[in-house]
Structures are given as C-alpha cells and as structure tokens.
Amino acid sequence: MNAPTGRLESSLTLPQPYLLFLGDTTEAGYAKTAFGLADWAADRCVGELAIGGCTVTTGLPPMSPAQARAAGARSLVIGVANQGGVIGDSWIAALVEAMEAGLDIVSGLHVRLASLPALAEAAKRTGQRLIDVRTPPPSIPIGNGRKRSGKRLLTVGTDCALGKKYTALALHRAFVERGIDADFRATGQTGIMIAGGGMPMDAVVSDFEAGAAEILSPDAPADHWDLIEGQGSIFNPAYAAVSLGLLHGSQPDVFVVCHDPTRKVILGMESFALPSIEEVIDLTIRLGSRTNPAIRCGGVSLNTSSYDAEAAEALMAGERRRLGLPVTDPIRGGASFDALVENILA
C-alpha cells in the first residue's frame, strides 16, 4: 500500500491545424470534441465539415477536405463523441475523401480507425496516417491508495457532456493568471487533444482505473494544484465505473459539481432522472473520503448557455442561497467565478 506512485510520461504531437468533422450529428452534446477544440484551441482549427443530416455547428467556416487542405489543415479530427464511440457507415466516404485530399485522420473514439477496412485501404493507398488518441499507455499499475503530495481538484457531474472539461480548463487558466503553480490533467479525448497529453480514462481496463488516475496526477510540491478533468457521472448507469475509479485515484482535496439546469434526464438514457446537485455532493464525499478523508465541495459550475445574462444570474443567485456554496458559470466569468476560485483556495 505504500509503494511509490508511477508518473505518466506522455506527450501527443498531432498534425495541425485541424478540420473538425461533425458527421451527421443532431445532438450538440455528442459533438463535444468539436466544440471543445473550437473553444479552447481555435488557433489550431481552420473549419468544420458536416454531412447530410447534421444540425449542429461550431461556428467555424464550412469547408470541404480539399478547401481545408488548401487553407493549411493537416488533419481531420473526428469531432463526435457518441455513445459507444463508433464510426457510422455514413461517415466513411467523407473520411476517405479527407485522406485523398491529403489529411491525416485523428480520432478519439473507442473503435480503432485501422479496424475499418475502407479506412485502412485508403490510408495505405494515400500514405495518410490513422491516429487513435484513445489509447492508454502500457503497464498501468493498480491503484495503491497512497496519499500523494500536492493539491488536487476534480470536476464531477450530474451527467456526461455538461461542462466538466470546460470548468477544469477555466479554473486552470484562472490559477495560472494568479501565479499559482498548476497543471490541467486531461482524462478524455478532447482534453488530451487540447493539452497534448493525458490519460484516456474510459479506455482503461476497470481494474486499473484508480492506478491510471494516480499516475496522471503524481506527487507534486505542496503548493502545486492539479486540475483534473472529470469523466461521466457516478450516477450514470453506463459510465459510473470510470467516474468512481477516477475519483478514488485522483484523491481530490476539492471537487466542483458541474450541472446543466435544463437537463432533467440522463443523456441517452431517458428513463433515468438526473440526480440533484445535493445528491452528487453527498455521494462524492462519501465515496471520495475512502482515499481522501478531507475531501470537500468547492462549489458548483452551471452550464447556463441556454439562458440570457439576466436569467442566468437570477438562477445562479438562487442556487447560491439554496446550497450555501459558490455557484457560477465559468464561461461567463465575473465575480461569481472569482468567488469559486477563492473558495477552492481557502
């Protein structure tokens, strides 16, 4: 139990800039990879590509693969993170066209690109690369539960795809601006593409989830903070396993609950009601205290993108009074976000 915790030594060099592929997506939550890159790595994105039936957009210019290549793009990034991480049959022609235009294909989905014969053949014929981001490093140890030095924050959620990555990135930026020694620790494909490294937690075998989280956030100086991107939700019938392993292995001193106030049911599982913020706080403390008895909730991050400014502030003010915690939308920022940062650091 007292064995040293290993360290993740990895970096990711992807061919940039990117053309973001939206496929035929109709649910914005399933295009979170595209939105994440457009919002946090806009300088590395030249445009977007959609096929018939797609109803979402990042706001980037629509481009064909040839147009994107002429504009400087070097790869097409599959910007969809759907249930099961699969590549639809309807996507294949567009991906082959991208390789024929001179673009590598980058994917964070569970399915391996080279396992699809049409893509493997096109890659061999064109010389373009098929790059899978969701590949864990070899020889991940099991978790040992040893208390590590340094400070850690984990974003947790009432559900998937509602702001855990954005909250961790916004907090990391705020910490750095304050001169605090901090790292953003990516745990999903989009975060890894933004950060240039990380641990694809949902591709790790369950027995090794906690160990993977431990090596992602190793021993650090006492005043160093790791801002760890959360995954899934401990209330999600499909994804609770990765969420719990990440919670135990991260040993967070502080967690922030992320929530979309317009969502009433689990995304893609409409027979399951969304848990309340209070339920998430209670269960996270009870489960997280197994590896860090001092765990506490630093506040709440609300995704108020569907509200106007006045309605968003009224909602957040009401939640502050009800919960007795800082409540903010990190994307809106302002005094409420500063209050969250101060409470985390208190």
TrEMBL record:
Pfam families to which the protein is assigned, alphabetical: DUF1611, DUF1611_N
InterPro entries: DgcN-like, DgcN-like_C, DgcN-like_N, P-loop_NTPase
Domain D-glutamate N-acetyltransferase-like C-terminal: 142-335
D-glutamate N-acetyltransferase-like N-terminal domain boundaries: 55-136
UniProt feature coiled coil, ranges: none
Domain of life: Bacteria
Gene3D superfamilies: NAD(P)-binding Rossmann-like Domain (3.40.50.720), P-loop containing nucleotide triphosphate hydrolases (3.40.50.300)
Protein name per its UniProtKB record: EBNA-1 nuclear protein
Organism: Sphingopyxis bauzanensis
Phylogenetic classification of the source organism: Bacteria, Pseudomonadati, Pseudomonadota, Alphaproteobacteria, Sphingomonadales
